[in-house]
Amino acid sequence: RKEVEQDPGPFNVPEGATVAFNCTYSNSASQSFFWYRQDCRKEPKLLMSVYSSGNEDGRFTAQLNRASQYISLLIRDSKLSDSATYLCVVNKGGGSYIPTFGRGTSLIVHP
Amino acid sequence: DAGITQSPRHKVTETGTPVTLRCHQTENHRYMYWYRQDPGHGLRLIHYSYGVKDTDKGEVSDGYSVSRSKTEDFLLTLESATSSQTSVYFCAISSTGDEQYFGPGTRLTVT
Questions:
Q1: A89: which chain B residues are within 8 Å (Cβ-Cβ)?
Q2: Residues with Cβ < 8 Å from B91, sequence gap 6 or more?
């Protein structure tokens, strides 16, 4: 099993839709979790951290489920500009400073 | 945006030639990373640094070396470039080893 797994998609949704991605991780000792966004031919950019209590930033909500070892990203009221690849990142903690990246989930928002 | 630059941004070189990519930061972050990104593989860690003159290998380090003689610069060297090293190279920095901030990338083509 890969350390961090994501459905590559693409998720093809109309504007205004709500879409959710999940990301599973294999190391139960993982401590830190993040979502990054990557536009085509650009660098990844930090979207949001994922806290145990969940995290919301505008239309974006991230959740952590430790029992089932997954994190989720919910995007409400999708915009055309949300089209991108979303990368899940997990850090096992315990002094580790090498995050593990998933391969990403592609989102296409169409008119 | 974090102050991180990469140079050159694009390079075409011939097989067997040495190539050095530079990552420069103005954030005084402790950790610096070199990744390569290829279709179907996602981001893969080449080398990383946890301080000046402190570096270690990532998962795809063969054929690459690095140096960090000062906090702000992290150099990636391909001693003898091969066609399999054609890729997009991203540098990243982090103050804690968790959240990372990426440079704009270098597109390297080895002919």
A1: 100
A2: B4, B6, B21, B23, B32, B33, B34, B35, B74, B76, B102, B103
Q: What percent of chain B has pLDDT over 70?
A: 98
Confidence bin at A92 (pLDDT 50/70/90): confident
Cross-strand partners of B74: B23
Burial class (CB in 10 A: 0-12, 13-18, 19+), A100: buried
Statement: residue B1 has pLDDT above 70:
no
Question: Residue A57 phi/psi, 5° resolution?
Answer: -140, 95
Q: How far apart are CA A9 and CA B17, in angstroms?
A: 38
CB atoms A42 and B105 under 8 Å: yes
Q: What is the DSSP string of A20-86?
A: EEEEEES-TT--EEEEEEE-TTS-EEEEEEE-TT-EEETTEEEEEETTTTEEEEEE-S--GGG-EEE
pLDDT grade, residue A51 (50/70/90)? confident
Instruction: Select from A34, A45, A98 the Cβ nearest to the Cβ of B48.
Output: A98
Q: What token pair was written down for A5?
A: 């797994």
Please tell me if residue A44 touches chain B, with a CB cutoff of 8 Å: yes
The two structure tokens encoding residue B41: 């593989």
Closest residue in chain B to residue A104, using alpha carbons only = B42
pLDDT tens, position by position, B5-32 = 999 999 999 999 999 999 999 999 999 9
